[in-house]
Amino acid sequence: MSYKTINPASNKLIKSWPDHSDSQVEKALATADALYHSTWSKGDIQPRLQVLKKMADLIDSRTEELAKAASVEMGKLLGQSRSEVELCAQIARYYAENAERFLAPERYPSELGEAWVEHHPIGVLVAVEPWNFPFYQLMRVLAPNLAAGNPVLAKHAKNVPHCATLFEQLVTEAGAPQGAWTNLFVSNEQIATLIADDRVQGAALTGSERAGSAVAQQAGKYLKKTTLELGGNDVFVVLEDADLEKAVEAAAGARLSNCGQVCTAAKRFLIHEKIAERFMEKFTAAFKAVKIGDPLDETTTLGPLSSAEARDGLDKQVQQAVANGAKLVLGGAPVAGEGCFYQPTILTDIKRSNPAYFEEFFGPVAQVYVLKDDDDVVKLANDSHYGLGGSVFTQDIARAKALASRIETGMVYINSATNTSAELPFGGVKRSGFGRELSDLGIKEFVNQKLVVVSKG
Length: 457
Prior knowledge:
Layout: E1 3-7, E2 12-17, H1 22-36, H2 39-42, H3 46-61, H4 63-74, H5 78-102, E3 106-107, E4 113-121, E5 124-128, H6 136-148, E6 152-155, H7 161-173, E7 181-183, H8 188-196, E8 200-206, H9 209-221, E9 225-229, E10 234-238, H10 244-256, E11 266-272, H11 276-288, H12 308-323, E12 327-330, E13 345-348, E14 365-371, H13 374-382, E15 386-387, E16 390-393, H14 397-406, E17 413-414, E18 429-430, E19 433-434, H15 439-443, E20 447-455
Parallel strand pairs: 5-6, 5-8, 6-7, 8-9, 10-11, 10-16, 11-14, 13-14, 16-17
Antiparallel strand pairs: 1-2, 3-4, 4-20, 9-19, 12-13, 15-18
Helix pairs in contact: 3-5, 4-5, 4-7, 5-6, 10-11
GO molecular function, one term: aldehyde dehydrogenase [NAD(P)+] activity
Keywords: NADP, Oxidoreductase
Active site: 229
């Protein structure tokens, strides 16, 4: 049994979960495919939207239960888990209220005649999702595709099987028919076999660059549509005229939220030289002020990493960065005792030749760079394999907008940390992936945008 619930605050096994056999996977695929060919997927949208409405209500009624499950299973602070659960309800309601409008026929003026584009489901999808937001990542896939009529077979991360099970139960209880969303405890090889199957028409993945490459390679081989939301090395720019108190508070939160295990977390802090010393003083103090402990304790401000493997991998990256010339300002080691905790860490003096310059640190580790002007900011921001999000802090909004347009990412937030909301598109460029989730863009990734023309004759 490879799917296990291990509490990262104590590193103790809570429960092991049985894997699904090949025959169970085949049955799940057959059920999903039959649902796609039924009036559920291809008929009136309203029954599907009613499921999303009911699911939002169910989530709201179980916020505490779901939040605690996430915190116990992957270590997120309880308050942050509540926020994640509330966001899931928001996404479900958003598509319940807007999907019909998004999928309505769109008219195209043409000399050839009356023309419009219809939006139809394309078939069964495979979703491969990560542990860091164990409910939100699933809802990002479920809500738009349930509304559109695409059944989903979902492989969640191996360390959050309880969350995966709870989510599937919510979909069923909300009234979705069997096959609309199926949780599978399967191997990478079983996912590859699913993607190759003619009944599967697409794959959505959120996760590591390595996992994205593997799924994209298999999907490409069999000509299947994919969306990938991968890693990030987001910049957090603080210009000389920024509100420093606000910027520091946002900076610490943007790096330490979810113990730094966020693809859009601020990871590279680009500070104007005129305020660098003051920023560092306040930023270091904010990191020192955290209270490390049990994520279920409401007074805790920094929980554990998701696993011992994650903690040890992060420590190896930090040690390698220092060995290659980085200056360790703060932290730089696992926290002694039980659990998968890591000290809040700040690194400076990172040269381009240092492996850390291009790596994503998935944990409470900040890299600080001191720069002299906006051109330097753009040059360093874009000198990355990734292109997911970013933040710019300044009181000159015109200047911030100009910088935002020049930074090569899928998202830029001005005077706030990178965020997410149902109505806003989410995604990146370069090795951060392709395609968009959420908003009107997300629901159109896996639909047939079919042109119909009535000729003038």
